[in-house]
């Protein structure tokens, strides 16, 4: 019943009893994992899990890869791991061997665990989930809870989409108006019919909040990768500092969805402004990867701007696509000098790609194939497979109805290595994959629960498990997993569709239109120049 499914899981004789007397001991290198596990188990056993004694849980280092572990449950529980991450995953698996009640925050124990032997290690090193906190702000408490949920599924990357047209969500001390102005908008579009809700929305994380989120995630072996989206998706920043934009007229923080016209200008001052922003971002996020977006950048304002046209002429560039590449390269060089790597959405392929850049391929898989063959590392974020803002079933009662249907089973069938790359050395460039919780139409943590679960459980199998799939087996294990989510209080989507209170009547979705969708995808992909 373990999700994601371990590589090997066999029953063994014996039964382990977890109660308030159970001891928990660990090699010094694994003491942080032991502290975390004690924090998870003590509330339900009602005891403190003393560090010494017999009949206990023991975490030890062994000769295994860092994320691998072996778990033996009998009269005692032995977790042998290659490193702290492996010990953490072994401990997560142990929690799943307990009854679902062990996932409640109080009461329930003692618990019996049938004997078992588990050998396990992940298939991919990048097992990510994007959370868009720009379109709708999620409170710090919501983010910490979400980290616990992705860590339960053995994901190890949280990509925080911190900035967009509709909101700037991270305090930057040098440029305070980014949050004073950019974190707030006066209302939000409610669906695809243009209706507005008339309610102000906003919020941001202070630098202390960010440090807390990063540390909390690190204790759960989740790397937080920040995204500062450039040079499109920047209307909130331009609203705060109009000198970053291309127009003489002031802008508001955007209240509608879809691809915007407003993009950064390409002045030296703008490059410097965002390098200053990154100085603070790098201080807060130890991640070797920094996402600088690059997606959906309309070029009309650059075409109309004498300054942008002068820049193209001065630099001897061919067109606005190459201007975007030049712009991104200013930051690639900046990050490389600080031993960080730029991650960009696949549009960064369009005008020549910064060397060393990692491509987050989202418009289907074409970008992943092109980038990997050109020697770039790739994270497969294919919207047609792992975008959790897409509806989960056909039906008009899906509460957040993007037109494209992406069922639980569709997600389970996802293969992170694109078919075209299989058997090629370039397949090694696929670091892993990442699902996305884009929140234009997801306005609360409750809706995040509904859209992300249980699809995230299926996604976790695609990045953790060997490539073979067994859908009936997954369904059977999921049936054992959902009571855990119930115990945690996750308001996931049921197999038979939303509960009545999960529907949102009166918010029309995009019409179900696969042909239009395919046409859009073809238009996007035909824009991709071969690198
Ligand atoms: C994206 O969905 N614009 C990366």
Automatic annotation (TrEMBL):
Keywords noted in UniProt: Glycosidase, Hydrolase
One MF annotation (Gene Ontology) recorded for this entry: beta-N-acetylhexosaminidase activity
UniProt enzyme class: hydrolase
Catalytic activity: Hydrolysis of terminal non-reducing N-acetyl-D-hexosamine residues in N-acetyl-beta-D-hexosaminides
Domain of life: Bacteria
CDD domains on file: GH20_chitobiase-like
Boundaries of every Beta-hexosaminidase bacterial type N-terminal domain copy: 2-121
Recorded family membership: Belongs to the glycosyl hydrolase 20 family.
Organism: Nonomuraea phyllanthi
InterPro entries: Beta_hexosaminidase_sua/sub (IPR025705), GH (IPR017853), Glyco_hydro_20_cat (IPR015883), Hex-like_dom2 (IPR029018), HEX_bac_N (IPR015882)
Gene Ontology biological-process entries: carbohydrate metabolic process; glycosaminoglycan metabolic process
Residue positions of the active site: 296
Domain spans labelled Glycoside hydrolase family 20 catalytic: 124-465
A Pfam family that the UniProt record links to this protein: Glyco_hydro_20
Any GO CC annotation of this UniProt entry: membrane
UniProt EC number: 3.2.1.52
Protein name as catalogued: beta-N-acetylhexosaminidase
């Amino acid at each position: 019943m373990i999700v994601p499914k371990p590589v090997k899981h066999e029953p063994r004789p014996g039964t382990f009893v977890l109660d308030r007397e159970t001891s928990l001991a660990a090699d010094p290198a694994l003491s942080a994992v032991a502290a975390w596990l004690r924090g998870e188990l003590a509330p339900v056993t009602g005891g403190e899990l003393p560090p010494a004694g017999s009949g206990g849980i023991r975490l030890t280092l062994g000769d295994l890869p860092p994320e691998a572990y072996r778990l033996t449950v009998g009269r005692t529980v032995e977790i042998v791991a290659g490193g702290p991450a492996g010990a953490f995953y072994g401990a997560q698996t142990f929690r799943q061997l307990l009854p679902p009640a062990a996932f409640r925050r109080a009461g329930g124990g003692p618990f019996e665990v049938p004997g078992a032997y588990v050998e396990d290690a992940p298939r991919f090193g990048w097992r990510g989930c994007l959370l868009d906190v720009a379109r709708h702000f999620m409170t710090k408490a919501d983010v910490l809870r979400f980290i616990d949920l992705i860590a339960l599924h053995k994901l190890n990357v949280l990509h925080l989409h911190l900035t967009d047209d509709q909101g700037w969500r991270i305090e930057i001390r040098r440029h305070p108006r980014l949050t004073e102005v950019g974190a707030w908008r006066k209302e939000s579009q409610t669906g695809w019919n243009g209706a507005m809700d008339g309610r102000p929305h906003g919020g941001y994380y202070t630098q202390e909040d960010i440090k807390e989120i990063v540390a909390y995630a690190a204790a759960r072996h989740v790397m937080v990768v920040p995204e500062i989206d450039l040079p499109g998706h920047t209307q909130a920043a331009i609203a705060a500092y109009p000198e970053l934009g291309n127009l003489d007229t002031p802008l508001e923080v955007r209240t509608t969805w879809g691809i915007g016209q407003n993009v950064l200008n390409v002045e030296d001052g703008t490059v410097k402004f965002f390098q200053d922003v990154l100085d603070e971002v790098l201080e807060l996020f130890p991640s070797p990867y920094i996402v600088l977006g690059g997606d959906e950048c309309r070029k009309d304002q650059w075409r109309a701007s004498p300054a942008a046209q002068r820049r193209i002429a001065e630099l001897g560039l061919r067109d606005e696509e190459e201007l975007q590449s030049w712009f991104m390269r200013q930051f690639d060089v900046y990050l490389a000098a600080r031993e960080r790597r730029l991650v960009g959405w696949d549009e960064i392929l369009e005008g020549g790609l910064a060397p060393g850049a990692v491509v987050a391929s989202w418009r289907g898989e074409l970008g992943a194939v092109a980038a990997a063959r050109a020697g770039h590392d790739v994270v497969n974020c294919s919207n047609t497979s792992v975008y959790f803002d897409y509806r989960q079933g056909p039906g008009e009662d899906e509460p957040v109805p993007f037109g494209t249907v992406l069922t639980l089973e569709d997600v389970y069938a996802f293969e992170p290595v694109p078919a075209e790359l299989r058997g090629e050395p370039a397949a090694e460039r696929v670091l892993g994959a990442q699902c996305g919780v884009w929140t234009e139409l997801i306005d609360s943590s409750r809706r995040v629960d509904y859209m992300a679960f249980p699809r995230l459980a299926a996604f976790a199998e695609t990045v953790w498990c060997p490539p073979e799939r067994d859908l009936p087996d997954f369904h059977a294990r999921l049936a054992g997993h959902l009571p855990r989510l119930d115990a945690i209080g996750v308001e996931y989507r049921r197999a038979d569709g939303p509960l009545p209170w999960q529907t949102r009547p009166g918010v029309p979705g995009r019409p179900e239109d696969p042909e239009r969708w395919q046409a859009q995808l073809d238009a996007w992909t035909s824009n991709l120049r071969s690198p």
